[in-house]
Amino acid sequence: MELKKRVETIKERCGKTPVLATILVGDNPASVTYVRMKGNACTRVGMISLKVEMRGDTTTEELLEKIEELNKKPDVCGILLQHPVPKQIDEQACFNAISLEKDVDGVNTSSFGQMAMGLPAFKSATPLAILSLLKHYGIQIEGKEAVIIGRSAILGKPIAALLLNENATVTIAHSKTVNLSEVVRRADIVVAAVGKPLFVQADWIKEGAVLMDAGYNKGNVGDIDMGNCVPKSSAYTPVPGGVGPVTISMLMQQTVEAAEKLL
To answer: Known catalytic residue: 105?
Structure first.
């Protein structure tokens, strides 16, 4: 594995093992599972997973202090604040407190801005996973019409920017979009990131469209009704087993990149 070899090279060069710190506030069951999966991925590539667990009633100020503590730790090469955090916390303020050099999930607004402008920056892991899958399978992006359903700061907006930088014609659809089905029907590439199970219907999909499902909902289903949509598609990502595992891989990749610069 390439990443494992790169981590071994870092260890041989400086005698230090890269650390990815994951901060979990509260005990959301899905978040607990995601953090565990990321910890397992760290182990597979030879890095240390530092799990920081904080109470559900943690304040923004307490979380900011913890982030600053991790920013100052030299062996910590990546900091991941597990989303979502409890409602009393100013999530974006905490994202923005993560050092750019350690923002391996691309959640700092400065990271987003640099990424959107095509400048070097760590990128949001799930959007990067979607782009990587498209490129890996040789799916043409340039000149194609892409419709992203969902406008979240960590998924919809960054994947729109990434696809725009690859010369796609990009539309972002959302809860206020008029005639959503007609908008989606134009798409050569559909990215579903709306968080509603089986939301995208077969009659919204044009023949030969590429379906990228970034959703994960109860019952192990995504945001696209794949059972009915797949026959119309030319390629698709299953749920589970599609975008999710590649997201974790992108997080590991960016953490190794950070370690190579910091250690």
So the answer is: yes
